[in-house]
Write a structure and sequence with these properties.
The chain has 190 residues and is an alpha/beta fold. It is built from six helices and 13 strands. Helix content is 28%, strand content 29%.
């Protein structure tokens, strides 16, 4: 599969390359480049005010919820938001679905206790189930998730190495990375 991963954390991008190695993975670390890549196959006919969407270059978009806000289109008071971490991944996901990406997922390592945007993700999922729901938009399957079970503790010097529970207890230098493979597998299976 051709997979686009959008995340501003270099460790999460490295983890994506490692965990999704059997696929063709493209990584982007900012909103503006992601928006251009997601929308590049949309054609605008300004005479008729009509947009035509062609098949995207990617099968899947895996997107971080929080990315630094873009400077594009901001002026005046809006300039104070440039570079601030904002939940703009939602809008990239909607843009990817609008541009007919078959599979789209937004995933954050912020749980519902750490940020209100992550708490809102819980509202999209049934109360009796902790698993994400799959939403359908155009021909896309869209998922938003904040599952702590989809995070890995990894060795910062070798992200490919999984760490067992005993080693986790004895190490303080481990880093938290997103397990994009679990996100992808869940999205494809549901």
């Amino acid at each position: 599969m051709k997979i686009l991963v959008i995340d501003d954390n270099p460790l999460n991008l490295q983890a994506a390359q490692l965990l999704l190695a059997k696929h063709v993975v493209t990584t982007i670390d900012n909103y503006d480049d992601a928006k251009k890549l997601i929308s590049k196959n949309a054609t605008i006919n300004r005479k008729e005010w009509k947009v035509t969407y062609k098949r995207p270059d990617f099968d899947v978009a895996l997107i971080d919820l929080f990315l630094p806000s873009s400077a594009s289109h901001l002026m005046g008071e809006g300039l104070m938001f440039i570079g601030e971490q904002m939940p703009v991944g939602i809008f990239l996901a909607l843009l990817a679905a609008q541009n007919m990406f078959p599979y789209v997922a937004v995933f954050t390592n912020h749980n519902h206790h750490r940020h209100p945007a992550s708490a809102c993700i819980d509202d999209l999922n049934p109360l009796d189930q902790m698993e994400p729901s799959i939403l359908n938009m155009n021909s896309s399957k869209l998922m938003m998730a904040n599952s702590a079970e989809w995070l890995d503790q990894r060795d910062p010097n070798d992200l490919s190495r999984t760490i067992d529970i005993q080693e986790k207890i004895n190490r303080e230098d481990l880093v938290e990375v997103k397990n994009w493979k679990i996100v992808l597998d869940y999205l494809l299976e549901h």
